[in-house]
Each structure stands twice: as C-alpha cells, then as structure tokens.
Amino acid sequence: MDYLEINRANWNARVPVHVGSDFYDVEGFRKGHDPLRPFELAEVGEVAGRRLAHLQCHFGLDTLAWARRGAEVTGLDFSEAAVEEARAIAADCGIPATFVTADVYDAARALGGRTYDIVYTGVGALVWLPDLARWAATVASLLAPGGFLYLAEFHPVADVLDDETGTTVTYDYFARGPHVWEDVHSYTGSGELDHPTSVQFQHGLGEVVSAVAAAGLRLDFLHEHDHTLFPRFATLVADGSAYRLPEGAPRMPLMYSLRATKPYK
User: Per the database record, which ranges form the Methyltransferase type domain (predicted)?
Assistant: First the structure.
C-alpha cells in the first residue's frame, strides 16, 4: 500500500472543499481573523523577527497568521493543491511567505538545508505519519541551536472513546495501524471528496515524547488541555471557539501541546 500517494490524493481533494468551508473561514482570515488558538500564542510567545517553519501546513492559514505576527515563515505540505492555494492567499493578503511542496520526511532537502528558530506543527498532523522517530529527527535537523519544536495536537486518549458520548473505551489505544478509512466527507462537514480513501497511524503520547527525546531535543513542557477544536463527541458543548465536556462532568484530556528545544553544543 502506497500510503503517501493515497493520502496525497485525498488531501488534494480536500483543498477546494476546505477553502470554501465555514470551518476554515478563508474570507474571515482575509479580513484579519486570527485562526491561532490562545494557548498556542501564549506557549509559543513572541515570534517577530524569528524564522518559523510550519510542517504539514495544509493551505497555510496558521502559517500566514504567524507571519502577520512578524515571523519569517516557510510552510511545507505534500499537497500540490494546498501549496498553490497557500501561495494565492498569501499574495491576495499581501503577506510575505514561502511555501514548498514536499513530503515532511524530505523537508531538510526540500528546504535547502536552512535552519529555523521555531518548527511549528500539529492539530491533526501526526496521524498521517507512520514513523515518528524519523519525523522527530527531521524536526531536529531543521532547528538552529537554541530553537524549538512546538507541537499542538489532539490527545490520543480521545481516539479510544466511543464517537457519540466519549465515555466508553471502544478502540484500542495501542493499535498503531495502518488504518484505512473510506469517507466521502471531510471534517469540515461540507462537500464530497473525489478521493475518499485515507491511511492513518495512531501514536500514543509516550511514543511522541520518546521520539522527540531520542532526536536530541530537550523537553520544555508537555501540557494537556481539557478542550478541543470541534465537537469530537456529541456531548461536548461550545465554549467560544473551543469545545468542552459539560460543566460538572469529569474532565479528560482532549488536546496536548509540547515544546522541546535543540540544545547548544
């Protein structure tokens, strides 16, 4: 199974659906809406004048949001359609940015050996990667000494629970995959995909942290969050732009964020 080409076709098909969706609200972004989450802004900190690489950037709204905050940004994605759209949005908004088409594992070569102060990634990115050790080594090669990886992701605990209530353990936490999915609809809830097949890989929290440590990065923090970005379970309630379990219900981690620094030698 060529997971990469299957997923590339799937994500190329998602681009026009996502660009036209309320979920991404591209028109709102053009008018100045900031898609970055408050906890990300607090944890990443000041980015003005810093070189930032966004891996698996899709069509670049988060990438360009960091550019609006003063970062010198480069976005990388394996979808040609996504990169083309990212460049178009950047030009339309007058935001300086570089976008490159490449598989994330080939990022060091595709980015010409350049290094960055910040490598930013996440929000549904790791599930598409079969080898986290290789991913973390790639991240480390992109970082300048003293630079850091910032990862914000959906918590793997949420993936083992039933889809309706989120209260019953239904799926195997240690079933890494590959998992083949057939779904003509994307998570944006609008439009149908011409290429509905995708291949995904589950990664536990221990696997993520171990891969980052093995790549020689020093863990600065691992934060778990009791909210997520979409109604993952029918029981979740909206709280501004986030979704949480109802007040009084036992809380569980729905997202996590991690920062790890490349030490000076």
Answer: 55-149
